[in-house]
């Protein structure tokens, strides 16, 4: 009995070993085939980028997944007329038809490939299915569909994507910001400002965060309504992070006494960017705040105010009977001086 079990175990092990070997051989052959296809098609695509056409390999490989993936890799690396030439070449090869067919595939990777290809080809035939896929519950696929749709025609479709951008918390802000950075600023900035002026829901926080993350310019009329004491703390923090215009300094000053420590911290940070010499006393008083973060950011802001001499700052601090204030401003001054030395070396 024991001998029989040993024989069966040995045979099973040999079978498993054989299967593993066959899998490795098949994988190796696939890798070699992919490398062969890349060697054939990479020069062809590079010539197409330069505006030249090469003789195409014979067979049915022109619209294979491997060839399209290689095209996509190259298309993501280039911009402008070079990308337009490569897209025109893809049209001639029939990539658009293949990508549209892949949108209905059961395989997520195949659908994602089709979505990405249609966007980089600027395929107007893909607008309708891509618009539907923006509503897909899968965050990766829907963000990719949104990107492709906006690459095709940002002016026509960004206004329709903004509600999803504002409300879909499963869309990472950094990914959305990367998509917006690819679009013309003359399209993105006005539409974003208008959306913020019209927006009254909790989605305004995400839109405000995107002003900072995507470096979208927010003007005074856009941000001023969000820098009011009646706004929730999370809205105020997002608006303060996006504040860059000196025209908003009065609105920022009005939040110095806000009961939320995080808001007061970002008030100090904002004054470091847009404050004037007139804010020195306000910031000096913030050095006595109960929150360490507020005290530290107020000290940093004091060292960054324009036209505020070190002697004037020392005189201002001498009027404050607070050893903590003196210590933290000395720390901020030491950090500023060290940074200046580092930049000059």
Automatic annotation (TrEMBL):
The chain crosses the membrane at residues 6-25. Pfam families: HEAT_2. The keyword NAD does not apply. This is HEAT repeat domain-containing protein. InterPro entries: ARM-like, ARM-type_fold. Keywords: Membrane, Transmembrane, Transmembrane helix. It comes from the Bacteria. The keyword Membrane applies.
């Amino acid at each position: 009995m024991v001998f029989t079990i040993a024989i069966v175990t040995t045979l099973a092990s040999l079978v498993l070993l054989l299967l593993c070997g066959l899998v490795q051989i098949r994988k190796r052959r696939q890798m070699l085939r992919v490398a062969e296809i890349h060697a054939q098609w990479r020069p062809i695509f590079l010539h197409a980028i330069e505006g030249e056409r090469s003789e195409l390999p014979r067979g049915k490989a022109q619209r294979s997944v491997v060839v399209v993936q290689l095209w996509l890799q190259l298309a993501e690396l280039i911009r402008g007329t070079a990308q337009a030439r490569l897209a025109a070449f893809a049209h001639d090869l029939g990539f658009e038809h293949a990508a549209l067919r892949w949108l209905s595939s059961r395989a997520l990777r195949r659908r994602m490939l089709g979505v990405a290809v249609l966007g980089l080809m600027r395929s107007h035939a893909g607008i309708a299915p891509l618009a539907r896929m923006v509503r897909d519950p899968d965050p990766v696929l829907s963000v990719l569909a949104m990107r492709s749709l906006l690459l095709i025609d940002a002016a026509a479709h960004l206004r329709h994507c903004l509600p999803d951008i504002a409300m879909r918390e499963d869309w990472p802000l950094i990914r959305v910001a990367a998509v917006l950075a690819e679009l013309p600023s003359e399209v993105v900035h006005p539409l974003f400002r208008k959306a913020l002026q019209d927006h009254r829901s909790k989605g305004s926080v995400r839109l405000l965060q995107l002003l900072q993350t995507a470096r979208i310019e927010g003007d005074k009329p856009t941000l001023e309504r969000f820098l009011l004491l009646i706004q929730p703390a999370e809205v105020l923090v997002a608006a303060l992070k996006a504040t860059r215009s000196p025209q908003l300094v009065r609105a920022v000053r009005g939040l110095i006494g806000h009961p939320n420590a995080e808001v007061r911290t970002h008030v100090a940070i904002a004054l470091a960017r847009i404050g004037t010499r007139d804010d020195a006393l306000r910031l000096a008083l913030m050095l006595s705040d109960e929150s360490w973060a507020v005290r530290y950011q107020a000290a940093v802001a004091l060292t960054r105010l324009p036209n505020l001499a070190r002697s004037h700052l020392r005189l201002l601090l001498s009027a404050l009977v607070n050893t903590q204030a003196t210590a933290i401003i000395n720390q901020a001054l030491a950090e500023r001086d060290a940074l200046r030395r580092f930049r000059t070396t």
